[in-house]
Amino acid sequence: MNTSTDLARSYIKYLIEAGVSDFVISPGSRNAPLSIAANEAFEKGLIDLHIKLDERGAAFFALGISKATDNYVAVICTSGTAVANYAPAALEALHSGNKLLLITADRPSKLRKTGSNQTTDQVNIFQGISTHDTSTFNPIKLEKGPIHLNLQFDEPLLPNDSNDWLQGIQISPKVAEVKKREILKLSGNGLVIVGHDKGGFPPEEIENFAENLLIISEDPLSFERSIAHSSIFLADEKIREYLKPDFVIVIGRTTLSRSINSFISECKNQYVVDPLAKSINNQRTAAKIYENLPQLDIREVSEQYRRDFELAAKSCELDLNWSEQLFARTFTKNIPDGSALFIGSSRPIRDIEGFAEPRSGIEIYANRGLAGIDGNISTIFGIAAKYERTYAVIGDLTFLHDLSALVSPIDSDCRIFVIDNNGGGIFSTLPQANVEGFERIFGTPHNQNLSKIITGFDIPHEVIKNDSDLQRAIIHPNHGLKIFIVEVPNRETMAVNLKKIYAKASNAVRIGFNLA
Predict the structure, then answer these.
(1) What per-residue confidence (pLDDT) applies to 1?
(2) Predicted confidence band at 265 (pLDDT cuts at 50, 70, 90)?
(3) Which of 68, 183, 306, 437 has the most C-beta neighbours closer than 10 Å?
(4) Environment class of residue 347 by beta-carbon count within 10 Å: exposed (0-12), middle (13-18) or buried (19+)?
(5) What is the largest CA-CA distance in the chain?
């Protein structure tokens, strides 16, 4: 048996026994020992094997599976620029705490800095992720967060034997982690504010933790009793002052609305629950920071405070015409229970936060670690590989950014809704909207016919032009992948309408509180 084959087999076997069941591979020469070993494990029914041509897309596809399963997923590539293509997904996994195992094939270390073909320094290439760089087998701990395993393979790269190296393999059972809970004693009017990442905690665990406290969630689709439209009415400084709490408990990272972050910052007593607080987010400040959910002991809670928030939410009766915001409300209301939903960054995730009615029954995913628009379709496909039915909503620029993913579409039932407003809609709602040259450097109109592009990939698609079209598209049975182009008013119209909606909501809530 040659050394490279032995090294590859040792790690593939070790990972299978450690519970890794999904391997994503991009074709290459230097990673041949790993590809052959993984394929042999697949032939024996020990793993699921996914082949993706593009390394960037492969890493995001693996990230999607990791999000859906909360298990380590191995993604394998050859040396050189292939490795660098893992960087965006690696950083997203780092800041989201996702279990992504990046396995990169390398030339022997003696060839580094010699001008050897397809050879660069791959050690610690991913910022914040340490590299296990080796030419011999050394077990690695599969702990939380991304891991980089860089394996040096010398020639020959192909096996010269056919022994049954997978015989007698034993997969280790998962052991539930026991978390120690501290006690947090508080009194007065307070609430729990949940970031879109939820700190990595299951929604039901947060619900139990929050007890009878009010919940404001950036993801209203996971918490049925969260306060609706909070990001809208809290944009009013006077309303924020009226509803100012005695304390807030922030779970995870709040990454969306300025109004919610202002509401938090204006409260003197802040408590944070963030499992990444000692590593990635180690500069966070609060009265106290917890890595795990504490046990609450709350006293002197005012029922009137709860009624005030409920009145504010009810006062935001949003009469919407066809728009991105009406899409968000209708879309999220009609998704069937048991489905998975991926929400793209920029406007879609903010519109759902502000305009969706709170509910439960669906699993919510998003790339909120660094909130990038790259690799979203690949991430969606990874999630869809593990669900019977998957929905997704992304912007048109996000869609165009990851078109290469459509080269190898999935077989799962997956419906992707693309908001087509011909460019970067988020910027029309930010201060940049008024700068000279806005349309060229921020609006970035793509001027592409999305229908023709999708047709070129031979993927079924449909155009959505109104609310009735949307409702039919959601409930109509579908097998496989289908893409829906959602035509909405232009970005300038959207920005103007949003200002009117916020002003009307603010006025209604002020009247309800006698603040007008």
Answers:
(1) 53
(2) very high
(3) 68
(4) buried
(5) 83
Q: How does DSSP classify residue 176?
A: P
Q: What is the pLDDT of residues 360-402, one digit of tens each?
A: 999 999 999 999 999 999 999 999 999 999 999 999 999 999 9
C-beta of residue 420 within 8 angstroms of C-beta of residue 486? yes
Q: How far apart are CA 329 and CA 336, in angstroms?
A: 14
- Check whether the bond before 156 is cis (ω within 30° of 0): yes
DSSP conformational letter for 70: T
Long-range own/partner contacts, residues 276-280 (CB < 8 A, 24 or more apart): 276/95, 276/97, 279/145, 280/94, 280/95, 280/97, 280/128
Q: Which structure tokens are listed for 314?
A: 């009810």
DSSP-assigned states of every residue in 399-438: HHHTGGGGGS--SSEEEEEEEESSS-GGGGGSGGGGSTTH
9-23, 290-304, 400-414: which range is least confident on average?
A: 290-304
Query: Which two three-digit tokens encode residue 250?
Result: 């922030």
Angle at 342 between CA 339 and CA 343, to 5 degrees: 130
Q: What is the pLDDT of residues 453-467, one digit of tens each?
A: 999 999 999 999 999
| Amino acid letter for position 502 | Y
Cα(214)–Cα(398) distance, rounded to whole angstroms? 34
**CA distance linking residue 502 with residue 151, whole number of Å:** 54
Give CA–CA dist 361/222, Å, rounded.
7
Which amino acid type is present at position 211? E
Sheet of strand 48-51, all strands in order from the earlier edge strand to the far edge? 48-51, 22-25, 73-77, 100-106, 147-152, 131-134
From residue 472, how far is each of 107, 325, 334, 475 by CA, in Å?
54, 18, 10, 5
**Tokens 């409702």 correspond to what residue?**
471
Q: Six-digit token pair at 35? A: 């590809």
